[in-house]
Structures are given as structure tokens and as C-alpha cells.
Amino acid sequence: MESEQLFHRGYYRNSYNSITSASSDEELLDGAGVIMDFQTSEDDNLLDGDASIGTHYTMTNGGSINSSTHLLDLLDEPIPGVGTYDDFHTIDWVREKCKDRERHRRINSKKKESAWEMTKSLYDAWSGWLVVTLTGLASGALAGLIDIAADWMTDLKEGICLSALWFNHEQCCWGSNETTFEERDKCPQWKTWAELIIGQAEGPGSYIMNYIMYIFWALSFAFLAVSLVKVFAPYACGSGIPEIKTILSGFIIRGYLGKWTLMIKTITLVLAVASGLSLGKEGPLVHVACCCGNIFSYLFPKYSTNEAKKREVLSAASAAGVSVAFGAPIGGVLFSLEEVSYYFPLKTLWRSFFAALVAAFVLRSINPFGNSRLVLFYVEYHTPWYLFELLPFILLGVFGGLWGAFFIRANIAWCRRRKSTKFGKYPVLEVIIVAAITAVIAFPNPYTRLNTSELIKELFTDCGPLESSSLCDYRNDMNASKIVDDIPDRPAGTGVYSAIWQLCLALIFKIIMTVFTFGIKVPSGLFIPSMAIGAIAGRIVGIAVEQLAYYHHDWFIFKEWCEVGADCITPGLYAMVGAAACLGGVTRMTVSLVVIVFELTGGLEYIVPLMAAVMTSKWVGDAFGREGIYEAHIRLNGYPFLDAKEEFTHTTLAADVMRPRRSDPPLAVLTQDNMTVEDIENLINETSYNGFPVIMSKESQRLVGFALRRDLTIAIESARKKQEGIVGSSRVCFAQHTPSLPAESPRPLKLRSILDMSPFTVTDHTPMEIVVDIFRKLGLRQCLVTHNGRLLGIITKKDILRHMAQTANQDPASIMFN
Q1: Is residue 380 included in any domain, yes or no?
Q2: In whole angstroms, what is the distance from residue 727 CA to residue 8 CA?
Q3: Looking at residue 306, which CATH number applies to its domain?
Q4: What does each C-alpha distance from 74 to 53, 247, 796 come to in angstroms?
Q5: Residues 353 and 393 in one domain
Q6: 154 and 257 fall within a common domain
Q7: What is the pLDDT of residues 710-726, one digit of tens each?
Q8: Do 570 and 453 sit in the same domain of this protein?
Q9: Which of 357, 543, 623, 685 gives 20 to 30 Å between its CA and that of 759?
Q10: Of 612, 637, 662, which closes a domain?
Q11: Is 120 inside any structural domain?
């Protein structure tokens, strides 16, 4: 299992020494064993790092391509494994982009040679559109399947349809002629478990039996979900968005977007939602869509052999995921741009839009909710909002920001406690306990017993003449003429007041349970629980403002626009604004969130209230901490992610961060022509670094280039097999011309072809804010530090993350690969 592999590789070790000894692409070299404990290195670490056949690039300090270096030209045929990356390593964005340019040039140069080459060129050009089309089709189909299955299994907790077992409660009663307007959800075809088992439809015995069966099904679904995740696909748990953000930044997590993860996540997502846990399916749908994008990318060599190009497909897939989650194609594209993508060129924008369009079209064709809409809680409002209402909207924004700040701190504290105590070793038990508590408390309250999406639908819905909910139990004025579309504000009846009390209890329950549910070992999204909390708060505020306007319509704030008998306040609108505010407070999304919510409601008129609430929630949340929940989980898990939103304001220099430190031994380096094959092999065996700077001589320390460990190993092994006379005492030459050697000397080994002649370098006086920007914008793994051309040290991505943690008064050992 992946978690066990992580443990053995050292990623779960808490000590600073163990963490830094875990080999990765960023960990290129260090002082000769003073900082790091190399005793934990494994034999396979010798091949960490990567090389690529036929890669053509050399970079100057500014990053311009000015010449070409052919890697491993001495090899006659490709060696398996060259050009790939090991698990938990960061890709080399610069090299991957140069590989793609070289591939594109090669195809263009051949396309006029024959009709077949022209066909291959056209196929290559269209492969990007084909892969996002397939991703959109698969994402839409899987989302429709998940929606239908989750609705059916959610209703299975309460009863079953005898006439057609595959119908949920609503579908079961569609064809019945015996339903009444007041009790439209009751029909002879639908039987509760109490009716089937003890033959009673009413009474205490019926209530207790339904209660027991509700808990039984909830626990069964939760147990089945966590068991499937634990046994078959440990990566299928959680939301998936923090890991997808990290993967899109260039990190490799093998298996996270694989076929097993896709299959298990799809099945367990249905089970987790049906169990009634305080979670949603919208976040995990992004993970499902990215799995589809990753799998389809392997059908096209353009993407399967290039990690940077593959991430363009994953960006489009994440847009398709949000498109089917909320029925918001434009919001999905903006979500991919604002929240998850690290590298988002214009071509990816168009393909993301197309993938979102295809996914939404497929979902609309399936029509999983039977309402010809893409989401269950689509609503339309007919009453305009008034300037005075901005005040309660802003207050809802403040509540959303406070909720977001509280949730992030509480959830991260609980997740950290789970990691550091024995409780985290029993994920199945934790899920069962949380599911049991949720089911026991949720059943008595009709608003917590509801599926969370149905609860949001009810809270969003405006009270019309056809609504029978207790939230719409207003006292009607018998003298008023009946108006179908525009019902005036009325005094609240007993049903509304009892509903408010139940909603207040539901709000407390949702707040507490969501903190403990997000992060357990089942697929768990955060969008829907956060929106539910905001919708409950918003509906309560909306009813309060509505009653205030009814009883005090002569106040100056109401007098101008709210006359007696007019429909002034729409409580459902307040629920919508509250939902957006709470989701914004947790995720710190702004533009994409507003677009998603107005696509949900189908009206542009309410953009200003949404913008006011979302910006307020972001400002309030940022006052307590600038991290959103996904960034907080990235930091908790110790992923090497440089957040572009995070500002680096300290005045340190490259010399303050580079290694080795002044008290450390010098760097492990190679010389241009003074080392033998045996010297290099000993250096590789004695260290776990993934690369070595090459200098002219120990005395001059003038930088020549940079050689990766894997390139060295493969080149030496290949030379021993294919070139006669290469022995341990053979001189290794990285220079252009081989130095003169005594006649009896063995044949020298020329390795200039594997040398990166112009690695990225900065001077020791370069401000760290510039270095951080270079790493963010170019996706670097390491940067060499020089002074007047003399090599001084190296800065890796891990060094920058440690330095940023130290400047934020955090323990760097606690954040790296926990």
C-alpha cells in the first residue's frame, strides 16, 4: 500500500534528519553528512533523479535557450526508465517544455515528406482536443451515475419502492394516483422499513424501527466505503483537491490518479454520501474528473511521455469536474484558473472551457435529478434586492469569514492530532464512530435527516403557493387577493418558528460534525457542508429581516420601498448569499465562487450581493490567516508546494539560505577531468544526492555545469557494457577536449553529453524574494549559487520551503513530508 511505502521511504518520520534524508528530486546535494543522516538511504536511491534521451536545452541565468545539449548521445538505443520520474519527486518543468518543443519541431520537419507523416502531424495537433473531449464525456457520465446512485441509496435508509426497487422515493410516487397535495411524498408503492418489518406506519414502534434501520444502513454504507478505500485504494479518501493542486504544481504522486483510485472513489463516494455523513460529493468529483483525464492522456504519446503537457489535461479535467458538480461550466474554468492550476496557458483555457462544456452537456443529457437541470438545488428568484439589504448580506459575509477561520483552525488541529496519536491508526473505527454519532443525532431533526443537497434546495427555494414545507407555514391574510407569482410578506406561523429552532440545532450539529468529518478515510467534499451551514444561517437571517419588515414597515429603512402587502424580502436569497459566504470563508475563492453560485441560480441580478458577501468573508477570514483549507492541508501533509498567492516579504539573500552553511563541510562535487570512474561510483554509493555540480578543479571552484545522478549511473553502466577498455581507473572527462594521458592509461570515458552546461545560477547577493519568484514561475527544482563564477552552494525547493516556514515562526521539521 502507498502509505506503507511512504513510511518505509521516510516521509512519515518526524525528525529533521530523517526527513531531509528521504531522497527526492529537490534533495540534490548537501554537506557531506553533517546535516543529514544517510544511514536510512536505500539502495534504490542511487537511481533517484532522472535523465532524458534526446532532450535539447541549455539555460542561461535568465532562462533563455541559447544552445542545445543532447543527453546520452553515446547510447545506441533508449534505456527503460530514462526520462521518467520516481514517486514523490518534482518534475523539471524547463526540461519537459524543451522536450515538447523538440518533439513539435521533429513532427513539423517531417510532415511534408509523405501523406502518412502529414496524418501523424494532424493527429498530434488534434490530440489535445480529443483527450479533453473524452475526459468531458467520462466526467459527465460518471457524475450522472454518482448522482442517481447516491439519491437511491440515500432513500434506501428510510424505505424501499416495492413496485420498482431501482426507484428512489420521489420517482416511486411519480406514477401514483393516490398521493395528495399535502402528503405528496406518501404513496402505497413506497414502504418504510417499519411498515415492511412490523407492519406499522405510525406510532412509537414505527418511529423506533425506522430509527434503528436508519442507523443500520448509515453504518453499513460507511463501513463498506472505508473498507474499500483501505483495502483497494488508500488514495481515494478525502477531497483530493489539495493533492491535485500539488500534482499540478509538478509533484509526482504515483497511483493518485490511477484506474483503481477512479473506480474505488466512484463507488465509495456514493456510499459516503448515502451514509449521511456531513460531507459532499462536489470536491471528490474534481478528483474523479482528473483521474479520467490522467487515464485518457496515456492514449496519446504527446501527453503520456511529457509530465508538463499532462498537467494541461489535468487542468482542463478539474474544470470539467466543477462543471458537473455544480452545473457551472464557466465557473469550472475559473475554478481551475483561480484555485488549482499552477501553469495555465491560453490554450489550456480554451480546452478547459471545451471539457467543461462537454461534461455539462453529457450530464444534462442524463438528467439525473429529473428536473432538466444540472443540479438539484437550481432556483430562480423574481423579487429584486434593495440597497438596505446589503447590510445583512455583509453580516452574512462576516459570519462566513468567521466560520471559515474557525473551521480551518479546528479541522487542522484535529487532523494533526489524528496524525500524531494512536487514533489515526484505526481509520475504520473512526469512520464508524463518526457515522454512528451523525446518524443518531441526525434522525430526530428533519433538516439533518435530509440529504444535504436536498436541504440546500429547500433552504434556497422561495415560498410559493405550491410549497408545503414548514418553512413556508405563514399566516395568510384571507382578505388579500390570491397572487400566484408574487406572494406578499406575511406574518410567520407556528411552523416557521418551530422550523427556525430546528434549523438552529441543525446549524450547531453541522458545524461540529463537519470539523470531525472532513479528513476521515472516505471520499469527503467540503463544498456542500459549507454551503449548507451558510444556507441555514442565511435562511434564519432572511426570515428575521422579512418579519422585521412586515411588523415595522413604517421604519425609515423600509418605508421607501417596502409597502404593506408587497413582497419585499426573499429569505431564499439570503440562504444563497450565506452559502456563498461560508464556502468563500473556507476556501478563500472569490471570482470563481461568485460565477458558480450565479450559474446555480440562473440570474445575473444578484451578483452584487454575492460579491459583497464573498469579499467580506475573504477579508474577515484573511484577518485570522491567509490560508484556505486546501493550502492548510497541503502544509499539514508537507507537500512541496510553493503557493503563488503567498507573499515573501523578508529581506534575506541567497547566501543566507543556500547550503552548505558556514559550519558544514564543502559540497560534494565532480571535477571536469580529474576523477576516475571508480571515484564517481564511490561518490554515488556514499551519498544520496540526486545531482552534482561539475567544477574545473578543487582549487578554482569555477562552475562548469550540473550532472544528474541517474544520468551518471546509466552512462557509466552503458559504457562498461558497450565500450571496450572502460575500467574503474578510467579517467572521466566532462571537458570538450580530452586531456593528454600517459600511453599506458586505460581508455577515458567522455561524459560531456550528459552535462547540463548552463544550469540556473544566481549570485550570493540575489534577494530571496527574486529567488522565490524564479522557483515559482519556472518550476525549478534547484538553483546553484555563485560568486564571480565560483561555486558557493545550492538552493533547492525544500530549502525555500524550510526558510519560509522559519520566517513564519514554524518548525520546518514539522511541515516537510509528514
Answers
A1: no
A2: 35
A3: 1.10.3080.10
A4: 10, 33, 30
A5: no
A6: yes
A7: 788 888 888 888 877 78
A8: yes
A9: 685
A10: 637
A11: no
Beta bridge partner(s), residue 56: 70
Query: DSSP readout, 99-138?
Result: HHHHHHHHHHHHTTT-HHHHHHHHHHHHHHHHHHHHHHHH
CA distances from 809 to 41, 253, 414, 645, 802 (A): 30, 29, 21, 19, 11
177 and 261 housed in the same domain: yes
Dihedral angle of Cα 290, 294, 299, 300, to the nearest 10 degrees: 100
The pLDDT of residue 177:
62
- Give the model's pLDDT for residue 16: 33
Supply the range of the domain harboring residue 520: 387-637
CA distances from residue 395 to 209, 506, 736, 769 in whole angstroms, order as listed:
43, 20, 70, 37
> How do strand 159-161 and strand 190-192 relate by DSSP bridges?
antiparallel
**CA-CA-CA-CA dihedral for 445, 448, 453, 455, to nearest 10:** 40
pTM score of the predicted model: 0.83
Give domain status of residue 124, yes or no: no
Co-location of 594 and 669 in the same domain: no
Q: Which three cell numbers stand for residue 241?
A: 483537491
Domain count, the chain: 3
Same domain, 482 and 626: yes
Residues 618 and 507 in one domain: yes
Task: Please give the torsion angle defined by the CA atoms of residues 98, 101, 103 and 108, in that order, rounded to the nearest 10 degrees.
Answer: -160
**Is residue 708, in this structure, part of any structural domain at all?**
yes
pLDDT recorded at residue 17: 36
pLDDT at residue 319, as a whole number: 95
Q: Do both 402 and 528 map to the same domain? A: yes
Q: Which residues of the chain have pLDDT under 70?
A: 1-84, 175-185, 376, 464-468, 476-489, 559-561, 563-567, 603, 811-818
361/615 Cα distance (integer angstroms): 31
pLDDT reported for residue 384 = 81
Given phi > 0 = left and psi -120 to 50 = alpha, else beta, which region is 370?
Answer: left
Query: With contact defined as beta carbons under 8 Å apart, do 624 and 592 qualify?
Result: no
C-alpha cell at 48: 533517484
